Amino acid sequence: MAIARLMIQANGYTALSFRDIASTVGVKSSSVHYHFPTKGSLGAELARRYTEEMDDHLEQSLAMSRDAGAFMARYTAVFRAALANENRMCMCGILAAEHDELPREVQLEVVRFAEVNVKWLARALAIGREQKPSAQLQSHALAIYAAVEGAQLVARSRNDIMVYDRTIEAYRDNGLLP
């Protein structure tokens, strides 16, 4: 699973190969197929686990501090860490870019990842601003999610993590991020 995740983060879903996974791990391709009969079942499980990991991370981040700025710093650090790991992408971000090529079960998990992110971002934005309408918080949260994924994509395309850092700082300076 770890190898498959890194492969997707580096090269996307369409480049994922059971043969390459097996070769890297040192097993036969049939061993991978034993656990995941289809590429779609593997992709869906990878995305499901990735979403659960992010959900856990966001839960811990919000528990660590009730400060929206601190939460956002930890949030953007997750996306930065992927770039710092050999210029990789958020796994569900790269999967989203390949939406039309994904089996339905993978598409659903990618959508769930976005929903989990937006939910947590809205909760963080509500800290100290509970009077703000829920729809406004959701809209702002979606804008943050899209902006952070976009900053990561642009930085990756330039193979320059500093592009990500400068973009995130610009988001803070201009009020998108607390």
Commentary on this structure:
The protein is mainly α. Helices cover 76% and strands 0% of the residues. It has nine helices and no strands. 31% of the residues are buried.
Counting DSSP E segments of at least 2 residues, the number of strands comes to: 0
The radius of gyration over CA amounts to: 17 Å
The CATH topology, please? Tetracycline Repressor, domain 2
| CATH architecture assignment | Orthogonal Bundle
Protein structure class: mainly alpha
The percent range for helix content is over 70%
Q: Could you give the topology of this structure?
A:
Layout: H1 2-11, H2 18-25, H3 29-35, H4 39-64, H5 68-84, H6 91-97, H7 104-126, H8 134-158, H9 161-173
Helix pairs in contact: 1-6, 2-3, 4-5, 4-7, 5-8, 5-9, 6-7, 7-8, 8-9
Keywords for this structure?
178 residues; globular; mainly alpha; Tetracycline Repressor, domain 2; 9 helices; single chain
Short description:
With 178 residues, this protein is an all-alpha fold. Helices cover 76% and strands 0% of the residues.
